[in-house]
Amino acid sequence: HRGHADWRLPNRTELESLVKIESFAPAIDGTVFPDTAPLGYWTSTTHAPIPDLAWYVDFDDGYTGASRKTDTYHVRLVRSGQ
Questions:
Q1: Are β-strands 78-79 and 64-68 bridged in parallel, bridged antiparallel, or unpaired?
Q2: pLDDT of residue 81
Q3: Strand pairing partners for 68?
Q4: Contacts of 10 (CB under 8 A, 6+ apart)
């Protein structure tokens, strides 16, 4: 996409770092990340106690939770580039 092949899902820590605690619906800086839907976004981090689950970050309220990997959430990709 856009001439790059190093896109990936961010891990839980990376995605949680985008949460803007004082914001709500969406709980993210709308200037830096315009048009972010106030919904859940997958991370690449598996929920260790239950490997069928993965962590997500909800940009409605900033909540982080785990859900079945077969559930449907949005994705926000990051680049692994140098």
A1: unpaired
A2: 62
A3: 53
A4: 43, 44, 76, 77, 78
Bridge partners of 79? Answer: 7
Local structure of 75: helix, strand or coil:
coil
Tokens of 43: 């991370």
Give me the average pLDDT of each 10-residue run along the chain (82 residues): 84 96 91 94 98 98 97 94 58
d(CA 20, CA 30): 10
Q: Please name the residue that has the structure tokens 């976004």.
A: 41
Would strands 40-46 and 64-68 be described as parallel, antiparallel, or unpaired?
A: unpaired
Please report, as a single letter, which amino acid is at residue 76.
R
